[in-house]
Design brief:
This protein has 221 residues and is an alpha/beta fold. The protein folds into 2 domains: 40-88, no CATH class; 92-217, Rossmann fold, CATH 3.40.50.980. The chain has 9 helices and 9 strands. Helix 3 packs across helix 4, helix 5 (92-105) packs antiparallel against helix 6 and helix 6 (126-142) crosses helix 7 (159-171). The longest helix is centred in the middle third of the chain and has 17 residues, at 126-142. The chain is globular and about 55 Å long. 17% of the residues are buried.
Length: 221
């Protein structure tokens, strides 16, 4: 951008920019072949389908999910408020696990984890992950946690973190993930603001090569 053009832009109250990016980075052919939407044309067809028949588009996709209570209406739109899948009830944990098992994927890999610092590797099939989630969900219920109550999750990036999230969803509890780098005071503030009734944590965990004493931090001194 020339000096006169830059000065004119600033004079007009606009933020001048000297950055212009016109390059295109197409994905590898093998990646594109495995994509659900393999091209811009495929995306445009989906977009046009949704634009021309909004209710029909989402109804066709939602009906494939395992609804606990079927919805009576796809969309109740009263601007500025929108209610999707009116009267319907669904469970995220059942969608992620039970539905996959019911469709024949029970013995397929659902979760792969590689940890710090040794590169330890753990894998779970959908059936194995479901068993762990159900075990934790039963434990939460035994503690008296009810649907709608908030459970804070202050854990390292391990499979147990995913299991805890899915276990909360399974019993209808709300999970609140707390960043592992927060101080005990910040953790306490977030638990208080969320009105959490329980905290799921671990003795410690690894983050960028350093050990974090999570359990100690989760308890205010």
């Amino acid at each position: 951008m020339s000096a006169p053009d830059k000065a004119a832009g600033q004079a007009a109250g606009r933020v001048a920019s000297v950055m212009q990016e016109d390059r295109v980075f197409p994905p590898p052919a093998e990646f594109a072949r495995q994509a659900r939407i393999g091209s811009l044309e495929d995306y445009r067809r989906l977009y046009d389908e949704a634009r021309n028949d909004l209710d029909g588009f989402w109804d066709a996709r939602a009906r494939a999910l395992p609804w606990t209570t079927p919805y009576t209406k796809v969309l109740d739109w009263k601007p500025p408020h929108a209610r999707w899948f009116v009267d319907g009830k669904i469970n995220a944990s059942a969608c992620c696990l039970d539905h996959q098992i019911a469709t024949g994927k029970g013995d397929k890999t659902a979760l792969v984890w590689v940890g710090e610092p040794t590169g330890e590797r753990r894998e779970f099939t959908y059936k194995q992950l479901q068993a762990e989630v159900c075990r934790v969900a039963a434990g939460l219920q035994k503690l008296g946690i009810k649907p709608g109550e908030v459970v804070s999750i202050y854990m390292p990036r391990t499979p147990e973190l995913v299991i805890a999230m899915l276990a909360c969803a399974r019993i209808g509890a709300v999970h609140s993930v707390i960043f592992g780098g927060f101080s005990s005071e910040a953790i306490a503030d977030r638990n208080q603001d969320a009105q959490a009734v329980a905290v799921i944590t671990a003795d410690g965990g690894w983050r960028r090569g350093a050990q974090l004493p999570l359990k100690k931090l989760s308890t205010r001194p």
